[in-house]
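Hi U.,

Before I forget, here's the chain from the pilot set. I'm dumping it here mostly so it's searchable later in email.
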Amino acid sequence: MKTKFAVAMLFVAGIFWSGRARGQVYIPTNDPPFYGPYNGVFLAGGDELKKHLAKSDTVLRADSPWSLYAWIWVDEPPKGALLIAGVGDPGEEYSRSLGVDGEKLFYWGGKGATFSANAGLAPGEWQLIAATFDGEEVQIYANGAKVASGKLDAGRVSPLLVIAPAQFPVQENRHFAGKIAGLTALRRALTAGELKDIYGNRLNFATVVYEEGSKPWPVQTQGQVGYRAPQDPDTMPRTKAGIPRPEKQVTRESKSGMEAKSSNE
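Structure:
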C-alpha cells in the first residue's frame, strides 16, 4: 500500500514540475499603461535624457514582448553609427536600442547582438523608426515598413529608458544631434499594420513641446561644446570632504588698541 502511494505521489510531482518547465505564466504590468510619448531636442556632443521605469515592470523580463517607436529628424546625415533611444543601459550586457548609421537602421541588443539594414533614412524630414519583439524575434521598421529581423540572445534589462544616449563605446561615444518626437515604449509587439497606421497618422510636429537634452541655462560666459550655456553647478561633481572650519583668531592688546591676529601668521 505504501509503495503504491509513493508511486502516485511521484507521478503527481512529475506532472507539476513538467508543467513549470514548459513556462511560467505571469501577469503583465499595466501601470503605467505605456511609457511616453517623450520628445526631445539634442545638440551634438550634448547630454542625453533618462526616464526611469518601474523596477518590477514585466517589460524588463527577457521573455516579455515589447515595442519601441519614435519619429526622428536630423539636419545632416550622421557620420558613423549612433544610438537614438532604448530600454536598458546600452553599455550593459543586454540592451534594447535603436540606432542609425547613415541611411541604415540598426538594432543594438548588447555587444555581439546587433543587426542592421538599409532603410533609406534621409536628413531634413521626419521619419518613423521602430523595433518590436514577440518573445522570439526582433523586427525593425522604417517609415512603417519592415526592413530586417533577427533572433538574438535576450536578458533582463535595467529599468531605464535612455533617449539620445551620450555613451556608446563601440563608436567613440558619438551622440545623436536632432529632434526625437513621440518616443513610446509598449509591453506588446505592434503588428506591421499598426506601425503602418502610425506612420500614416503623422504627428502635428508644429505643436510638439520638446524637452532640452542640453539645458539652456541663462548666463553664458564662454561657449562650451554640447551646451547652450555653462554647466549647471548642480550637475557638477561633488566631494564628500567636510567643510573646513574658519581659522581661529588670537586677540591681543597694543598701544593703539585691540589687534586681531590669525593663528597662521
